Amino acid sequence: MPIRYFTPGEATALLPRLAELLEGLRRTRDQAILKKAQVDLLWRELGEGHSVLSRLAEDQKVLDGLVARLAELAREVESTGCILRDVDLGLVDFPCKVRGGATVFLCWKLGEPGVQFWHGVDEGYAGRKPLAELPLDLA
Asked: Containing H/E element for 44?
């Protein structure tokens, strides 16, 4: 799939959908972690001779569904052309071409009101700079 490049306006337009997807990813991930712990406990109980096979099968089916939903949500995020960096932070980067044809990343974190920062491809989150400093050719 070719890289999609965003303007700040295009990235900002995606934020409501991305916020929804990120919240879904977090919620589903948390459910999967809990269900995995329950499945692991049932495996231990089974190993100790307890009659839990049917519960184990049911919980494993639920866990498999949660994992499939996580993959589906991640594909939806990826299909927008942005790059999911961190689910916990809700951190997303948007490739952007700047003056001279260089690529940088517009950077947004869940909870921020809009795309307000950018960083170089080798800088990451710690190197975020205000969007006003972005060297764009908008002519």
From this structure: helix 8-47
C-alpha 73, offset from chain centre? 8
Query: Is residue 104 packed enough to be buried (19+ CB in 10 Å), middle (13-18) or exposed (0-12)?
Result: buried
Q: How much is the pLDDT for 137?
A: 62
DSSP string, 51-79: S-HHHHHHHHHHHHHHHHHHHHHHHHHHH
State CA 34 to chain mean position distance. 19
- CA–CA separation, 5 and 84 (whole Å): 15
Say how far apart CA 40 and CA 110 lie, in whole Å: 32
**Are 84 and 95 within 8 A, CB to CB?**
no
Closest-CA residue to 104 (of 13, 3, 2): 3
pLDDT single digits (tens) 58-79: 999 999 999 999 999 999 999 9
Output the DSSP codes for 85-133.
Answer: EETTTTEEEEEEE-GGG-EEEEEEETTSSS--EEEETTT-GGG-EEGGG
Secondary structure element (H or E) that encloses residue 40, with its range? helix 8-47
